[in-house]
Every structure is written in structure tokens, then in C-alpha cells.
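[Discussion] Sanity-checking designs against the backbone

I'm trying to build intuition for which residues belong where. Below is a C-alpha cell string of 280 positions. I'd appreciate it if someone posts a full sequence so I can compare it with mine line by line.
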């Protein structure tokens, strides 16, 4: 008697195999959902504000991982012109943005997103007894400023040139100040560090460099608005961006009210009107 043949029925997947399959499927989903990197080249003076923006932006865009390259704007522009991968460029002055744009590395029209002003700082104990810009001409004062090509240096030179044109200061004042410069740094954060370490009696930085984390170790002296500079900060998508849509989202956030509020909290001057803060 011949044995009857019945169609084969699928056997239940063993519990261990089923568990392994679920783990593999979960792993593939996790891998597919990895955040995409957005590379932002930003002026060193934006460090604190942009790190705060990163937290808020990534919370609103969990599919994006913001990666910063903070440095002097002239350094950043040179890197972009040499082909360094970047999606967004935020400069501390229009000149460096224009240089990157002239080299064909900027897409679209840059937008001004914030302003800044210079600040005179000394160590908290103020060993040189500096109380104003006039004291920077005192023989023996160790002054640190940004190096040539750095936006902060252009603003600093413009400020001292205005002082030198005033009868109460004069050309001799500017010459005496230059004679006291002991170091020229690649960016304002390096200037700040020299003062914090006591390697300088004074430094010229941006107002946004004076933060709650360092106010116990330094003094910030006011600079009259008539002679102070108002630094302009443009931002744009780079021509070689691998993530132009995400880059546009980041720029939109920086220009939004939440983004502008963060900038104002770190002593930058927003372009949006926030309780009268814009343009101050």
C-alpha cells in the first residue's frame, strides 16, 4: 500500500530564529534612520550661540546631526575655497563671505543674521590697571588682538583709526597702542584665552565672547558706540553642499524668532525685532 503524499506545510519558526530575525530587522531600521550630517563652518565668535542653536535645531530635526567647524572667518573661507566639505558658512563679516562667493563656493544670496560689537577685556585682577581704551597706550601694557585677515582685526583697526582721528587721542595714541601689541591671534577665542591665562593685560574681542562661563575670570569694559564697530554676520548655503535642503532649514532656524532669541541670549544683536534688541 502506497503511502499518501500530502502537501508540505510550513513549520513554525523556532523562537530563537524568530528573535534573531526581529533583531536583524530592527538593526536595519535603526541603520536607515541614522541622522544625516550637516556640516556648518562658523566664525569662532559664534561658538556658544551656535552650540545652543544645535541643541534646539536637532530636537526639531532629529534626522539631522549638526557638525561644526569653528575658526576665524578668513580661515574658514580659505578652507571652503580649497574644497573642504561644508553645507553652511556663517562668517563674522561680509568680506570673507564675498571671497568664498567670488570663488564660486556660495549658492544663492547670503543673508545677514546677526550683528556684534567689540569689547575690551582684562583679567579679573586687572594687573595693568586698565580702565578705558586710552590706557592701552600706556608703555608696558601687553595687548592681544586678532591677526590680519581676521574680521575682528578689521573692526579693531577701524575702531583705533577713528580714535586716532579724534583730537583728544591723535596719531601718537594709535602708534603707542600698536607698540604694545604682544600677540596677534588666528581668532577672537585665542585672544580671549590669552587674557584668561594671564598672558596679556588686555584684549579686544567681541561682546559675545564674554559669557557667564568666564565673567568671574575677566572684566569687560564698555566701548563707546560712536567709535565701536558693528560687525555684520552673513550666512549662506555652500555651492558644494551635500544637504542643501537641510542647510536651508538650518539657516531658516537661525533667522527664526527662536534662533534669534538664542543669539540675543549670547550677546549677539539679532536682526529680528526682539523687544527692541535688533540693531542696538
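Best answer:
Here's mine. Compare freely.
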Amino acid at each position: 500500500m502506497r503511502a499518501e503524499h500530502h502537501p508540505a506545510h510550513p513549520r513554525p519558526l523556532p523562537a530563537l530564529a524568530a528573535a534573531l530575525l526581529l533583531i536583524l530587522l530592527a538593526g536595519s531600521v535603526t541603520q536607515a534612520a541614522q541622522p544625516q550630517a550637516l556640516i556648518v563652518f562658523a566664525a569662532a565668535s559664534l561658538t556658544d550661540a551656535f552650540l545652543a542653536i544645535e541643541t534646539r535645531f536637532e530636537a526639531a530635526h532629529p534626522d539631522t546631526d549638526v557638525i561644526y567647524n569653528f575658526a576665524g572667518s578668513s580661515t574658514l573661507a580659505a578652507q571652503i575655497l580649497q574644497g573642504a566639505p561644508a553645507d553652511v558658512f556663517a562668517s563674522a563679516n561680509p568680506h570673507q563671505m564675498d571671497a568664498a562667493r567670488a570663488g564660486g563656493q556660495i549658492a544663492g544670496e547670503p543673508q545677514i543674521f546677526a550683528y556684534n560689537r567689540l569689547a575690551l577685556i582684562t583679567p579679573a585682577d586687572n594687573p595693568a590697571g586698565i580702565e578705558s581704551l586710552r590706557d592701552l597706550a600706556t608703555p608696558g601694557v601687553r595687548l592681544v588682538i586678532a591677526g590680519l585677515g581676521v574680521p575682528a582685526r578689521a573692526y579693531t583697526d577701524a575702531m583705533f583709526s577713528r580714535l586716532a582721528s579724534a583730537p583728544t587721542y591723535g596719531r601718537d595714541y594709535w602708534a603707542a597702542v600698536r607698540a604694545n601689541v604682544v600677540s596677534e591671534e588666528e581668532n577672537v577665542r585665542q585672544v580671549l584665552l590669552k587674557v584668561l591665562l594671564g598672558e596679556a593685560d588686555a584684549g579686544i574681542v567681541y561682546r559675545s565672547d564674554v559669557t557667564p562661563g568666564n565673567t568671574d575670570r575677566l572684566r569687560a569694559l564698555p566701548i563707546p558706540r560712536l567709535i565701536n564697530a558693528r560687525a555684520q554676520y552673513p550666512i549662506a548655503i555652500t555651492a558644494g553642499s551635500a544637504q542643501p535642503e537641510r542647510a536651508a532649514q538650518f539657516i531658516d532656524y537661525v533667522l527664526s524668532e527662536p534662533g534669534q532669541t538664542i543669539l540675543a541670549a549670547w550677546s549677539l544683536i539679532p536682526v529680528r525685532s526682539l523687544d527692541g534688541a535688533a540693531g542696538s
